[in-house]
């Protein structure tokens, strides 16, 4: 091609090549055996130009390459790079990748329970660790040039998302921020905020998947395409995506009314031939079993596959079902390689614990190429599954949605069993964002030509709704930022109260709230212009028409109020009269569909006999059951009696009367007409209207007539303008209240927290007290409760195992609350200390209510959960894993995770407790040692 260029063009091209080779990007590109995508090059160039970057791209598109370029730049410039991830599993994985490239001496790892080479130029860490370093003013921050925040969209998480914003706000200005996010629909808004708080930030959005994704539905033995693709010229923009008509036909067929034998009685004859044809059609539609799905995909060459099941028990059951079905996806050679790798990775696990961990059943599944992956598994087991899956030695994984979070486990196919999941409060449909995140695993870059997402057919499935999920790219990033007690004391300690307030106002949460106010503010401005026009329209030359209009409005409001009171009084009188009715009373129903003569069968009050009719809820006053003169038995409501009712006559109701019998009704109705048909009911006389004697109404009418505007010829025209003015003014005030509610929300919450901490002597305006400095070291969810427990000295004198039991109440939170069964707790000193902790929490809860600090909004202290106290006590007392897990009724993975969280908080307590005159610090360190043993101590990293 260069031969076709002129000498000048060849010279220009050589200059461009020379300029590119002089950049840091050129040698970085040579580290990869594939070319970089345009979005990766654009982001890397922006980074080298000194800009921060936000990269929003689909899962599996290779956005981490931008993060790795930040690492490369830091090493080239002799500066540090921190690579943060939301979960420890991701940190461990990234640490292993970077060690492989740069060597162990240049890479460190910091998670809640691991510290490896922490002063290295590259350190991988969880986001919480970096937040804690920023507040502590760690020396490790010296020389920091770049921070990579992987999975930054995690700031939407309502439990942990605030940590991401804290880091972004508090990082030194000299640090360049690299934010890597899944595809979000408001990346530009997030980029604008980053631009505001971090300086020049390039926003690079790529919506193109590196591997095309095909969407399917599996029903019975068949796999159907979800979309029927039609393209005019093969151009991407002209392609129409119509839902597969076969799926729509199946849904209609399944949802159509099935044959009911009673239909014959109702005259709806269904021909036997039609029913047989319907049965044959239905026989092709069913939800295939898990082994059946894997076998079908295997035969189609669509493995390896990840099946997302929104339940841990479901994942384990799926593996067992495949084993019982005799499914084998590995040959003998692959089985041997699996066994070798598993034995190597689990060599450090205590042999006596293997049985209780379910090791042998787990190994059998792995040897066959089948495994589960969920948070209840031992971390070691999960890591082995991930490694075997990437190596192609495990071909079918049944996982919960936690696997979708960044872990590098791409598959050829992703299967979704259901489109509904438990969100912690209720069963809810998965969102388009969640669907995109889950199916994003399908298609391995450089291996697969295309990826496949398969949704299993479920009864009642709507293919149109599924197509909406698959075709929607709306996944907005919403801030979950809320100030906490620990955050408040740390901010005041570093910046003082006023500056802290200003910093919180720069959060993404406030940025989004302020933006949402812009549209409302514009509406207020338009309304104010309208008000000015209406004010001009109601101007009267005789006087102040606004004052006259207010008098008219006050008069109307008073008349309306009295009318309502009168109506309520009449309803009460009517209800009271109905309560006096007895079976056998003849009454006249004054209004409604059944107006006229009627016989009371049942007065319809509690204790009344139902006379063969079903009972009803006594909610809206008496509801008498009556027989009308037209032979109808009906239960009337209070609406049928706008005025009080009296018995006109009495009649005996025969014991043999059956309201379901037409003959019985006819005979009794005839007797009713004979007995009382000639009686003319008295007309109800309405009393004198309350308004006639009301002094306030009289005063307002007098003032109205005396007002100068009352005599204006254009009075009614002015009044119409005044009414419009009043309505628009009322709407405008509502909008202003909405604006007031959204602006400065974060700062107002901070003010309430500051006031509470001041009352408890943690803060004194800009000063942090010794109690406050202790709180600054406690980062748990129940930070203030932990600090108050230390302050009250309730943990003094506790043995290490007893202290571990008490501290577990600060971190543990049962997956499903079970208030019916009180958790088992150790007796003696532990029980007393836990009781005191709950009492302190009760006092704090009352204080929070007093200061309007709302737990429902994510601020405040939840009640301590005692559900892990016995397990923590047993494990710290050197009991066997078998014994502890059997009594705790808890999966090994959960047990290890909670132990590590208890260890983390014990470490914080050891640092925050008084060094002298206290046993807490020393025993907290001993408790850490007692917990950190066996499966809890084992880690695949470090």
Task: List low-pLDDT spans.
Answer: 230-240, 257-270, 607-618
Intertermini distance: 52 Å
Q: Please tell me how large the radius of gyration is.
A: 37 Å
In which order are the strands of the major sheet placed? 4-3-5-2-6-7-1-8
Shape: globular
Work out the number of β strands: 26
Sheet with most strands: 8 strands, mixed
Helices, by number, come to 34
Report the average pLDDT across residues.
Answer: 80
Structural class: alpha/beta
State the helical fraction. Answer: 40-55%
Beta-strand residue fraction? 5-15%
Essential attributes:
single chain; 942 residues; alpha/beta; seven-stranded mixed β-sheet; 26 strands; globular
Report on the structure:
- The chain is an alpha/beta fold.
- Helix content is 48%, strand content 12%.
- It is built from 34 helices and 26 strands.
- An eight-stranded mixed beta sheet has the order 4-3-5-2-6-7-1-8, sandwiched between helices. A seven-stranded mixed beta sheet has the order 10-9-19-16-13-15-14, with helices on both faces. A five-stranded antiparallel beta sheet has the order 23-22-21-20-24, with helices on one face.
- Helix 21 runs antiparallel to helix 23, helix 28 (800-811) packs across helix 33 and helix 32 (892-912) packs antiparallel against helix 33 (920-931).
- The longest helix has 35 residues, at 545-579.
- It is globular and about 105 Å long.
- The relative contact order is 0.08.
- The model is unreliable at 230-240, 257-270 and 607-618 (pLDDT under 50).
